[in-house]
Amino acid sequence: MYSKLTDLLFTPACLNCKRFGLALCDRCLLQLNQVKKFDLNNIDEVICAHSYEGWLRDRIIEYKSGNYQLGRGLAEVLLAKCFEPLTNITIVPIPSSSEKIALRQIDTIGNLANQLKKLDSKIQVKKVLGFRHLVQDQVGLTQLQRAENMQNAFRSTKAIHGQVFLLDDVVTTGSTMAAAAVALKEAGADSIIGIGLCASSKLH
User: Fold this and answer.
1) Any domain includes 79
2) Handedness of CA 186, 188, 194, 196 (dihedral sign)
3) Residue 184 belongs to what domain range?
4) pTM (predicted TM-score)
5) Residue 117: which CATH number?
6) In sequence order, what are the beta bridge partners of 193?
7) Which residues have a Cβ under 8 Å from the Cβ of 113 and sit 6 or more positions away?
């Protein structure tokens, strides 16, 4: 957990309504409706905190555009909407390309995973995924183009076992998660649950 001293020095404000005291207040949390999908290859289920709309969509865009202080509040959303009380949670973030990291000066999904780890001591983060080859930016691609773009895109740098929570920010068609799951299965993962902040209407 974040220290009480840190919260005193840097009082958190709600991700949506800006009310002081919590990074995400109960009233705003109740506005989010979980989205689930069960038919992606190699993934038991995909759980997203909300559909890609409203204030959560706006905060994700703001976060990816440079307001990285929103990372804690977005992690609070993930923890509240996508995880049941569990022990020994292993999160594997979808990697960002070197070009995106250079542009943003941060690995946005890796940072979300790190924020989750700070919020819950039962969470482990294992950044074991890398790219086999360069991939095109997925924005603007059709579902078929996305699948072709991500085919054999990932590799695992280490063996991994047990249940894995595969983390992304926005799950559009699921092609990125499905490709990452192939690499995790090859590395030894027993089961994979996809986790995302928002689900595009294309996923529903």
Assistant:
1) yes
2) negative
3) 33-199
4) 0.85
5) 3.40.50
6) 45, 165
7) 91, 93, 125, 127, 167
